[in-house]
Prior knowledge:
Elements: H1 2-55, H2 59-62, H3 75-81, H4 86-117, H5 123-134, H6 142-152, H7 160-163, H8 171-181, H9 186-194, H10 199-210, H11 212-228, H12 231-236, H13 246-256, H14 261-292
Helix pairs in contact: 1-14, 3-14, 4-8, 4-11, 5-8, 8-11, 9-10, 11-14, 13-14
Amino acid sequence: MTQVLEKPVQTAPAVSRAERTARRRALLEWIAVHSLGVAAALFFALPFVFVFLTSLMSDSQALSRDLVPHTWEWGNYRQVFATPGFLTWWKNTLVYAGLGTVLTVVSSLPVAYALAKFRFRGRNLSLMLVISMMMLPPQVVVIPMYLFWAKQLGLSGTLWPLIVPMAFGDAFSIFLLRQFLMTIPNEYVDAAKVDGCGDLRTLVRVVLPMAKPGIAAVALFQFFYAWNDYFGPQIYASENPGAWTLSYGLESFKGAHHTDWNLTMAATVLVMAPVILVFFFAQKAFVEGVTLTGVKG
């Protein structure tokens, strides 16, 4: 009876030691495999952490070498929001990014569908023209475009010269959507046409539901571009503070608070936060859409 009771007492430490050794080995293997990824993540995350911590410091501490706030000054964000014009910049940016994204997707999808699924003479030439437009820097045409919008149409001091062109398609969005639509089998399109669907109905009822990841990727690219755009608002809206966006208004805010680094960092956090949140919640569709665009040429 005593031998039966002593046996588990002797083996229990051995089993526990073996489990600890296996866990330690698995942890070391995980660190070895993911060390580069962890280092890259820290490399990209540390600047955001620094900006956030600085935004919560007092005026004097923000000019010191301290890395962690002594007192968490959440009132800095209220002070930024109370700055005259900041909410107007926020509203203008939402209109510019939101409306521009919708117009870009709606105008680019039919063109991409035609280039991906239609067979017509000059199809390859049309694709080459789209690609060539991607190679044209916007600075090349900024002077004639400004003369057209400002002198001919009188729309200087507004964001409409930046929003309206998005209703006529975007070369990068067309190319990206075309590459994604190439991955959709033609059998689905042929089956829809056999059932009596026209091209527009096939696009809306069949292709559109299957192209959601690609559309999400294009929409995010366009939203990020419009949200962070500094060059366009500087050219067309600089003369009217009521039409400034966050990216352009942040430069004015920084000039007015050049010694208040805590307030400047708080404004920077408020500008970055929507983009980070949008990507965080839509990253799965974004990564899937970008990945599948290169599956088939």
